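Narrative of accomplishments. A recurring question from our advisory board has been how the design workflow behaves on a single, concrete structure rather than in aggregate. To address it, we present the structure tokens for one chain from the evaluation set, followed by the sequence designed for it. No filtering or post-editing was applied between the two.
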């Protein structure tokens, strides 16, 4: 009878250990997977054809709780461009690549800090001089299981 309890105890301990290893693995993998989704979207944004008289300066991305309150992982990707075109011309150009209103949005960028991201610190490395710098950004999405399990979104 004593051997049965030992087997039950060892089995229960093994099941609990396997459960904790799986949970820890998922919680460890969620940020890696979500950063991969965000990087892929940033790469896609950076690979869009540039309009005339425009150069790509830099790209950035960030995953986590970026704006607002509540729970939910958010994805932000942006490129910094320098262009002699006007803001309206750039908005018209990039709107042709957007499937939704939160994709390929364009705004003036006057400083290295990206003010669209409220939580955390996201900046461009480039020192900006003049008014020819623009940010082209998208709010990405990932509705998989890792979206919900990323602790940075809570």
């Amino acid at each position: 009878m004593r051997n049965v309890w030992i087997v039950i105890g060892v089995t229960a301990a093994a099941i609990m250990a396997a459960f904790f290893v799986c949970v820890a693995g998922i919680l460890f993998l969620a940020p890696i997977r979500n950063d991969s989704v965000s990087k892929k979207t940033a790469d896609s944004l950076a690979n869009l054809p540039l309009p005339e008289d425009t150069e790509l300066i830099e790209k950035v991305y960030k995953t986590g709780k970026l704006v607002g309150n509540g729970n939910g992982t958010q994805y932000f990707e942006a490129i910094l461009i320098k262009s002699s075109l006007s803001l309206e011309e750039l908005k018209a150009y990039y709107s042709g690549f957007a499937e939704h209103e939160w994709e390929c949005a364009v705004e003036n960028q006057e400083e290295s800090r990206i003010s669209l991201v409220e939580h955390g610190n996201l900046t461009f490395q480039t020192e900006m001089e003049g008014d020819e710098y623009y940010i082209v950004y998208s709010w990405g999405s990932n509705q998989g299981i890792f979206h919900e399990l990323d602790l940075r979104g809570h």
